[in-house]
Amino acid sequence: TILNCSCCELRKYIFPYFLVTGPEFRNIRVGVGHRLDAFSSGVLVLGVGNGNKTLNDLYRTRVTRDYTLEGEFGTATHDFTHSGGVMERSTYDHITQDKLERVLAMLEGANQKALLMYSNVDMRSQEAYEMAVQGLLGPEGKSAPILTGLRCIHFQPPNFILEVQCLNETQKYLRKLVHEIGLELRSTAVCKGIRRTRDGLFTLQDALTHHYWTAADITQAIRQYHSSKKHRKRSQSPAKKPALKTSEDVTAAQQNKANEEAAVGTIKKLVAETSS
């Protein structure tokens, strides 16, 4: 009957069947964690489906993020990037790695004071000490950007690379940071690149490049994350130490052993009498 139908009529017969059309498409909500702008790269956390609830928890926690910043001395631009309009050029021959590290130490110390100021905890309390030991000390809610770590990992003038750990930052703030470092060194500097290497628990090893943005690869990445999360929980749980035996426990064990031997002896005697 179907073979004699027209094309429009054929659609009425075939399209409603699941085996022909496949599963019905469903909208899947995808949320974005701490964002990256168009001039930055690295780890960008996405929440799929129920994972959006976890993103809210990620926002509320005091997790830090790691970046590598590529800088270049000698130029200042209107937007602090190497592709922006040049505002000024300056010399940089007087800059040494020792001078750069002193400026970084000064900035890190100033940000440590800001971290304590924004923390809603009495710094003289035991709670503040325990939070500091566990690395949980941080601002309550939104605050100004705070650097928790800052060091130079490559220095070859005019180029240098910084490793940064921070809270509540934006990529624009990080580019401006490179600019201010140049000014502190009586020179100028622009940011050539920003790469986020860690966002909380997520690192570059967990990331998928856009070539692997497929349903199968994303599902596999989610499974690997949950598996590693369970493994971390097991490794962090304290091992149970065997309890020490008291003299009463030893006496009870000896008594049980004696009772078992007596019972075995009785059974053997009964067996011998029956066989005889």
From TrEMBL:
Residues 27-171 form the Pseudouridine synthase II N-terminal domain. One of its GO terms (molecular function) is RNA binding. Gene3D superfamilies: Pseudouridine synthase. One of its GO terms (biological process) is RNA processing. Residues 226-235 have a biased composition (Basic residues). Residues 226-258 are annotated as: Disordered. Belongs to the pseudouridine synthase TruB family. This is TruB pseudouridine (psi) synthase family member 2. It comes from Acanthochromis polyacanthus.
